[in-house]
Amino acid sequence: MMERGRLCGNVAIITGGASGMGRGISREFASQGASVVIADINADGAVQVAEEIQNQHARAMVLEVDVRNHKMVTEAVEHIVEQFGKVDVLVNCAGVNQLLDPEETTIETWENIRSTILDGAWYFAKAVIPFMKKNRNGKIVNIGSGAAVQGIPQSVPYTASKHGLLGLTRALAVDLGPYQINVNCICPGAVETPLLKRLATDTYRHEELKRYPLGRLGKIEDVAKAALFLASSDSDWITGIALPVDGGLTSCIRVKNTM
């Protein structure tokens, strides 16, 4: 067991923790002393991440959870509290996307993306709030996107859901502030995750790089470090924000012409 770190003694739930940014955040939190609960529908992937964490002498627990299922989420959080006695941090990282033109987007696709990103975040927040209120302490970190503040092509349900996630962040920050519960949202640009690698063409990557003042796409650890800041006591007087972790993408219209 790690006895040092910025999250020492904390219990953290990471949804979507089996891969991508969720995996990176899980590993980062564990390295900082947190007991990490990896909540994911991908049980095999979650077990692999938990084993990686345990090999570093940190504590990890796996819960197979479909974030779209309110009853399953509620029962999962109750089980976590039974095991650990509390929940200090919730990171809502579960997400999915499918690139489609609006007329090709089915109702089923809309509902799947929305329920994974937005409903799942609300279900987990609703489940942990009573325990955080009781302790008058808690950190909720929602993993948004540049799509939470801008529109992106062929992603109507994804963009709408991420905008909703930012609204959820701000609304909860207002209501939960009196209980010393901080609620914030990270808005990453394009990050080198398995999802991006599956969806992005070489042409997309080439053109996308032109839009970033820092000249590179994001790394998973860029987001994990930001999540650590918002989950730690370093951010105790920060709530309701949308934190861009995007290499400057949302700060400019175009990059400098170097020709």
CATH superfamily: NAD(P)-binding Rossmann-like Domain
Helix content: 40-55%
- What strand line-up does the widest sheet have? 3-2-1-4-5-6-7
> Average pLDDT across residues?
94
| Number of continuous helical runs | 8
Key features?
single chain, 259 residues, alpha/beta, Rossmann fold, 7-stranded parallel β-sheet, 8 helices, 7 strands
Write the layout of secondary structure elements.
Elements lengths: L10 E5 L4 H12 L3 E6 L2 H13 L4 E5 L5 H15 L4 E4 L14 H29 L2 E6 L12 H21 L4 E8 L5 H6 L2 H8 L10 H12 L10 E4 L14
Parallel strand pairs: 1-2, 1-4, 2-3, 4-5, 5-6, 6-7
What can you tell me about this protein's structure?
With 259 residues, the chain is an alpha/beta fold. Helix content is 45%, strand content 15%. It has a single domain, classed as NAD(P)-binding Rossmann-like Domain (Rossmann fold), CATH 3.40.50.720. The chain has a 7-stranded parallel β-sheet, with helices on both faces. Strand 1, helix 1 and strand 2 (35-40) form a beta-alpha-beta unit. It is globular. The mean pLDDT is 94.
